[in-house]
Amino acid sequence: MDHRQSFFNYLEFEKRYSNHTLISYKTDIDQFTNFLLSQFELEDLLIARHTHVRTWIVHMMQNDINAKTINRKISALKSFYNFLKKQGLIKKSPMLKVIAPKVGKRLPKYVESEQIQRLLTDELFEDGFSGDRDGLIIDLLYSTGIRRAELIGLKEKDVNFYNNNIKVYGKGSKERLIPVSKLLLDRISAYLNAKQEHFDDVNKEFLLVTDSGKPLYPKFVFNKVKRYLSKVTTLDKKSPHILRHSFATHLANNGAELNAIKALLGHESLAATQVYTHNTIEQLKAVYKNAHPKAKS
Predict the structure, then answer these.
(1) Which of 46, 63, 247, 251 has the most crowded CB, counting CB atoms within 10 A?
(2) Residue 47: which residues within 8 A CB-CB, separation 6 or more?
């Protein structure tokens, strides 16, 4: 069997990576494979050396591929060669001598809390099933910080009205419980009633469905979020992930413990959550600059 396919099977069935992640890994490794063939006439990935990888990195940089994308591709190759090593197919990974390019730190963009409140309280959503669903999409993404894929995968049975929480299946099918407010539960209840009235044969498996009763899909959610965020913010990027950033940033700005934010977001590493503390620091700097007499001297 092709070593690449064995690796992809490992990611899919043992690591249980999402389809989106699998596609990214396959694309990155296929690109490296094609580069080796075109530049070095090298067909066997097992005999690739660190010099080949470095040449590929330089090639990408010369073609204006940003450092973040290059680092993702390097990460994919590291995982691939670590897999080959564990399988006993190579003795040493060629990635050991590869240094990833530095990525400039960028603070996550987020929607101001006042803008979010305006979005959720103003009558921006139409009456009836579609409006109830659209409002719930925005509210769930912001009030829970779940990812778009997690939102799409929510089932009706995942909502626990008694314990005030929802069950979410994150990356690698890891399960976590997220507490939700009574206001959000009331919104879910109203939506479920509208859903029951709107469809003769209602889909009771997936919580959120399209106007035709089918499960949501990524582009559908993206378009809805972009449409409604455009009504309240001038941010260039208006994606579902912006609402996730907003959820985490607002928690951090209001003093939530970092480990609690980590658990709510479903992050594996605290390092992934720490970026939200930078927004808090920037906020404190702004308060100091505007309020302290010495800051203006």
Answers:
(1) 247
(2) none
pLDDT of residue 135: 96
Domain count, the chain: 2
Q: What element of type H or E holds 64?
A: none
Judge if 87 and 129 occupy the same domain: no
More confidently predicted of 281 and 72: 72
CA gap 181, 78 in Å, rounded? 42
Q: Which residues are catalytic?
A: 147, 171, 241, 244, 267, 276
Question: Do 245 and 142 reside in the same domain of the chain?
Answer: yes
% helix, strand, coil for the chain, step of 5: 65, 5, 30
Same-domain check for residues 271 and 183? yes
Residue 168 forms part of a structural domain? yes
Per residue in 219-266, pLDDT (tens digit) is: 999 999 999 999 999 998 899 999 999 999 999 888 888 899 999 999
CA dist list (Å): 74 to 8, 24, 78, 83, 228: 16, 12, 6, 14, 36
Domain encompassing residue 14? 3-97
Q: Last residue of a domain, which of 70, 97, 124?
A: 97
14 and 131 co-located in one domain: no
Is residue 105 assigned to a domain?
A: no
Write out the E strands in the chain: 159-160, 165-169, 175-179
Mean pLDDT of the chain: 89
- What is residue 19's predicted lDDT score, i.e. its pLDDT? 87
216 neighbors 206 (Cβ within 8 angstroms): yes
Instruction: Let me know whether 156 and 280 are in one domain.
Output: yes
Q: What are the C-alpha distances in Å from 105 to residues 67, 102, 108, 202, 271? A: 11, 9, 9, 46, 13
